[in-house]
Each structure stands twice: as structure tokens, then as C-alpha cells.
Amino acid sequence: MGYADLHIHSLHSFDGTASISAILKYISTRTDLNILAITDHDTLAGVSEAVELAPKYDLQVIPGCEVSTRDGHVLCLFVDHLIASGLSLLETVMRVGDQGGLCIAAHPQAKGVKSLRFSTIAETLQNKDAARILVGIEAFNGGLIITRGNPLIQKMAGVFPLAQVGGSDAHLLKMIGQGSFWFEGNTIQELKNAILNYTTIPRHGHGLSTATVVTSYIPAFLLKLMGWVSWNAAPDAPIRLTNWMKVRTMKAITESI
Ligand SMILES: [Zn+2]
Ligand SMILES: [Zn+2]
Predict the structure, then answer these.
(1) How far away, in angstroms, is 108 Cα from ligand 1 center?
(2) Counting ligands in written order, which one lies closest to the CA of residue 105?
(3) Architecture of the domain delimited by 2-256
(4) pLDDT at residue 227 greater than cutoff 70
(5) Is pLDDT at 244 greater than 50 in this prediction?
(6) Domain boundaries, the chain
(7) Which residues fall inside 5 Å of ion ligand 1, going by CB?
(8) CA of 138 to the centre of ligand 1 (A)
């Protein structure tokens, strides 16, 4: 059996705080996940590095990103080309389909972050072509500070003909895996089959607490603004400890803002 977290942000998101190799190393040494997706906000900037490094960490990476549609956030997976932000959910889903990709509704109906409404998801699923592409919904999102939102999502997720998954929505190393899902098998193809057959089972993590935001995320975000991120000093040698190091240049930061 396999575990996947397909909702992880890296330094390539304006609000992410960890390098790609730090994320891979954390997952390989601190979690039982074997498949991940780096889903940065409206960018695929970190995907190729993640795909390239993953075998060194005995991990598998699904290329993707989190697109800001005008209706709310959606995870776009198995995509090689970026889809523009600001389109409707339906248009975004169809463009993902053109690339042979799949979509998962991220943190639906969540407060405090632009989220898809259940009614928009239902309308989009009326389109038969879209329904073959929008195939999953986060029944648990580890990044919701207002965790009261999760029981509602959990309840409503089962109403839709969609695979229910969990995602950490981690913007901080220690949140990775705090929201994931189980699937039969351990390969990317088996994961895809599980999503298409609605057999995924969400796994709840501890969720993002106010204390974690104050003591961990805000300091990490401020360090990020100063050019420091959680960094793996030896991306090719995952046994080494993760260090906080200044990014080689400010390029990655400026590109992601
Ligand atoms: Zn989001
Ligand atoms: Zn996210």
C-alpha cells in the first residue's frame, strides 16, 4: 500500500519556506509517504528539480501545481505546461485535460483562502468531459487554520462522485504529510487508478494550529523574505542534516513573488 501527499508548497510559492531538496529529504527521513506532488501557486518552477532528485530519495513525484482559478484553488496534476490563473474552473479543468492531466479540488469551501464552492464543483461536474478530469476532492486539508472547516468538507466530499483525498497544503517542512491519503499499490500508475476508481482513503494529520503558525510559520516566512529558506545542504546526499542556508541567489525568491 502507498501513501501520497499531493499538496506541498516549496520556496517557489511566495508563501512557501523550503527548498525542493529539503522537502524530499524531510519526506524520505521523517514520513512514510512514497509519492508526492510539489503544487506551488501558479508555477511549475520546482517540478523538474523534484522529478530529477526524487529517485535519490526513493520517492516518486507527480508533476503539478495549484492553479488560482477565478472560482478558487484547484490542484492540477500530471501537467507539463502551466495553466493561466484567473480562468473559470471549467476552462482550467479542460486545459488540464488537454495535457492528459487530472484535477483535485483543493480545500473546497474553506474560509480565508480562495476556495471552490461546492456549487461550482457540482456545476463543473455536469460537463461530462470535465467530470473525467476533475476526479478528486480534498476531504482533509492540513493547512486550514480554521480546522472547523474540515468536518464540513469531509461530510460534503462524499456527496460528489469524486475520489476523496487528504493533502497537507504544507508551507513548512514539519507540516508535510499532515494530510495525505492511502491507495492500493505503490506506483504512480496505481495511485492514478485508485483516484479514478474512488478507492483512495484520506488520512488526517494534526492540521495547522495557531501555535505552529506563530512559533514556526511566521518566523520561517520572515526568514524567507530575507532570503533564507529551509535548505538541504547536500541534495545528492539525503543522509546529511537539513540546514537553514541562504538561497544561492535571490533569483528563486524574486521569481516566485
Ligand atoms: Zn490553496
Ligand atoms: Zn496550497
Answers:
(1) 9
(2) 1
(3) Alpha-Beta Barrel (3.20)
(4) yes
(5) no
(6) 2-256
(7) 73, 106
(8) 11
